[in-house]
Amino acid sequence: MNANNRTNQGDGVTLRQAALIAGFGILIMVFTTPFAEFFIYPKLVISGDIEKTAQNIATNQGLFLVGFFCYLITALCDILVAWALYVLLAPVNRSLSLLAAWFRLIYAAIFSFALFKLVTVFHIAKNPDYVTVFGSEQLHAQIKILLSSFRYEWAMGMLLFGIHLILLGILVYRSGFIPRIMGILLAIAGVGYVIYELGPYLYPNAGLGLITITFFGELIFMLWLLVRGWKIPEPVVARESAPL
H-type helices in the chain, by residue range? Predict the structure, then answer.
């Protein structure tokens, strides 16, 4: 393989390939997460009416499973993107790139763990025997606790995701082969995530709706990866000297 077609990690994955993998991974999440979060979840989970929520899940099991697998695909894509971004930005600073990847991987692990709450909710809601054993009130209370835990644990994981974006922004800004504005937008998005997720605990009365605009920084970065990622110049790896 030609030296200038390899990364300096020697792992057989070029920076261009890593950029496109990361871009397509984020693109998949752009569809799966909003579909589950804004289309499926609100149809099933009715705020303030846990009895109706339990009934919705029990009578729409297929829709609930579609939402669950959309979330699961998102978690798997986060792992893939964490790896691809590490490969892409390791030439800038291997240690910092690894740290950024770990923050995203830990976030993905927390999110995956939170998803088990939905598995338990599904199992409880679809099995009528639980109503007979525990009674409807206790069963509904359990479902409410599980759904709330899913949201809280995911929100805590998003704090780590915000830190990941801040570190990613620093790496992109220092890369030299990605426009610095992308690094600035990613760092701003990361700060936005941290402020937004801490809101309910530190400043519950603050209106933070406008801060969600900063989240689009990652989407702009995704578009750059998909459109310009295949033009990223590969680092030149020095050839070994021929033996005398």
Answer: 15-34, 41-44, 50-59, 61-89, 94-126, 129-134, 136-175, 180-202, 216-228
Q: Exposure string (b/e) for 170-205, b if CB count within 10 Å is 16 or more?
A: bbbbebebbeeebbebbbbbbbbbbbbbbbeeeeee
| Measured CA distances, 114 to 57, 94, 118 (Å) | 18, 30, 8
Buried b (16+ CB within 10 A) or exposed e, 24-47: bbbbbbeebbebbeeebbeebbee
Q: pLDDT tens digits, residue range 28-58?
A: 999 999 999 999 999 999 988 999 999 999 9
Longest distance between any two alpha carbons in the chain, whole Å: 84
Q: C-alpha distances in angstroms, 48 versus 45, 194, 231?
A: 9, 27, 51
Give me the residue label for tokens 């459109």. 227
* Residue 222 to residue 229: CA distance in whole angstroms: 9
Q: Could you tell me the residue ranges of all domains in the chain?
A: 3-231
Type of residue numbered 160: L
pLDDT single digits (tens) 122-177 = 998 888 776 666 677 888 899 999 999 999 999 999 999 999 999 999 999 999 99
